[in-house]
Design goal:
There is one protein chain. The chain is α/β, with parallel strands linked by helices. The chain folds into three domains: about 5-85, Orthogonal Bundle (Arc Repressor Mutant, subunit A); about 95-165 and about 270-305, Periplasmic binding protein-like II (D-Maltodextrin-Binding Protein, domain 2); about 165-265, 3-Layer(aba) Sandwich (D-Maltodextrin-Binding Protein, domain 2), CATH 3.40.190.290. It is built from ten helices and 15 strands. It has helices spanning about 5-15, 20-25, 30-45, 60-85, 100-110, 115-120, 170-180, 225-235, 245-255, 285-295, and strands at about 50, 55-60, 95-100, 125-130, 145, 155-165, 165-170, 190-195, 200-210, 210-215, 220-225, 240-245, 255-260, 265, 275-280. Strand 1 and strand 2 (about 55-60) form a beta hairpin. Helix 1 (about 5-15) crosses helix 2, helix 1 packs across helix 3 and helix 1 (about 5-15) packs across helix 4. The mean pLDDT is about 90.
Length: about 300
C-alpha cells in the first residue's frame, strides 16, 4: 500500500464527506478510494470512517488520525514549496502565510492584494489579521508585518520596510464644544482616546526642535483597535493619536482637525517604524521577496523606504 497516497485519499474523504466526492477531487475511480480506505483501516487495526448509504463520517479515532495526516501532508507540501521557491521557475510558487496588524491590513494592504495574486498566479497567500505578537515558527507564519518598536530576537530577521507619522486629531464639533488646545500641555484638560498598551497611565511625548514635552493623557475610553479610536474621535467624543494612514483621509474630508501638527508625537517610547519579520532560513525566498516587492509598490507609509529583499 502506498501510505502517502492513502493518507491523501483519507484526508480528501473526510473533507468531502464521501468516497465519490473525494474520488472526483483526486480524479480517480471511487473504487480505488474505498479499497485504499479498507486497506488503511486493516493496517491500523482501527475504524476511521463510519459508512452509510447517505454519507461518510469520521470516527473518534479517525478524527485524531485526520489531524496528524493533514499535518504530514502540509509539511510535505511546504517542503516541496521551499525547494521550488528557490528554483529557476518564473515567479513565486507555493503557500505564503502572512500576519498583518488588523487596521493596517484592512486599510493599506487588503485593497491591493489582487495585484499580488495577478502578478504571481502560482502563489497561494493566507493573510491573518492580528495585533498580537506572533510566534513565526510555532504558528508557521512566513512573514509578519509589525508597526512600532520591534523586540530584538536573535532568531528573527527584522527588516525596516516603511515609516509613518502619528497625528493628534479631533472632530471640529468636539473642539467647538470643549475648545481647541493651543499647546500639548493643555491636553490634560481634555478627553483623550487612548490605544490599549501597557498600564492605564499613559503619556504622549511631543518634540519640537530641542523641546520635548511628555504629557499624561486621560480619558474614559481605551481600545486595542485604531479604527475604534478613529470612529469615536470622528463622532466628536474626544482627541485621538492616530497614524497618518488612518487620520489623513478624515483630515482631508474635514471630519477631523489636526492639532499641534508642527510637533512630532509618539506614545511613550514607541517608534514609528514598520518592519517585516521572518526567520533566517527564509532568506532568498521567492515568496517572501514577492510580497516585499508588492509592499514597495503600495501607496502610503510603505513607500518611505525602498524595496527590501529577504
Amino acid at each position: 500500500m502506498d501510505k502517502l497516497l492513502a493518507l491523501k485519499m483519507f484526508v480528501e474523504t473526510v473533507d468531502a464527506r464521501g468516497f465519490s466526492a473525494a474520488a472526483r477531487r483526486l480524479e480517480i475511480a471511487t473504487s480505488s478510494v474505498t479499497r485504499a480506505m479498507d486497506g488503511l483501516e486493516d493496517a491500523l487495526g482501527a475504524v476511521l470512517l463510519n459508512r452509510s448509504t447517505r454519507q461518510v463520517t469520521v470516527t473518534e479515532a479517525g478524527a485524531t488520525y485526520y489531524e496528524q495526516a493533514r499535518r504530514i501532508l502540509e509539511a510535505i507540501e511546504e517542503a516541496d514549496a521551499s525547494v521550488s521557491d528557490r528554483g529557476d521557475a518564473d515567479g513565486a510558487v507555493g503557500q505564503l502565510r502572512v500576519s498583518v496588524p488588523v487596521a493596517f491590513g484592512r486599510r493599506c494592504i487588503a485593497p491591493h492584494l489582487g495585484q499580488l495574486l495577478d502578478r504571481h498566479p502560482k502563489l497561494e497567500v493566507e493573510v491573518t489579521l492580528t495585533d498580537d505578537i506572533v510566534d513565526l515558527l510555532g504558528e508557521r507564519i512566513d512573514l509578519a508585518i509589525r508597526i512600532g518598536s520591534v523586540a530584538a530576537y536573535d532568531h528573527v530577521v527584522a527588516r525596516p520596510i516603511g515609516a509613518f507619522r502619528r497625528r493628534v486629531v479631533a472632530a471640529p464639533g468636539y473642539l467647538e464644544r470643549h475648545g481647541t488646545p493651543g499647546h500639548p500641555l493643555e491636553l490634560g484638560g481634555h478627553r483623550c482616546l487612548r490605544y490599549s498598551y501597557g498600564g492605564r497611565d499613559q503619556s504622549w511625548r511631543f518634540r519640537l526642535g530641542d523641546d520635548t514635552v511628555s504629557v499624561p493623557v486621560r480619558g474614559a475610553l481605551r481600545s486595542n483597535n485604531m479604527e475604534v479610536l478613529h470612529d469615536v474621535a470622528r463622532a466628536g467624543h474626544g482627541i485621538a493619536l492616530l497614524p497618518d494612514w488612518i487620520a489623513d483621509a478624515g483630515i482631508a474630508a474635514g471630519n477631523l482637525q489636526p492639532l499641534f501638527d508642527n510637533w512630532s508625537v509618539e506614545p511613550g517610547d514607541t517608534s514609528a517604524a514598520i518592519h517585516a519579520l521572518y526567520l533566517p532560513n527564509q532568506r532568498g525566498s521567492r515568496r517572501i521577496n514577492a510580497f516585499l516587492d508588492f509592499l514597495a509598490t503600495l501607496p502610503g507609509p510603505l513607500q518611505s523606504i525602498a524595496a527590501t529583499r529577504a
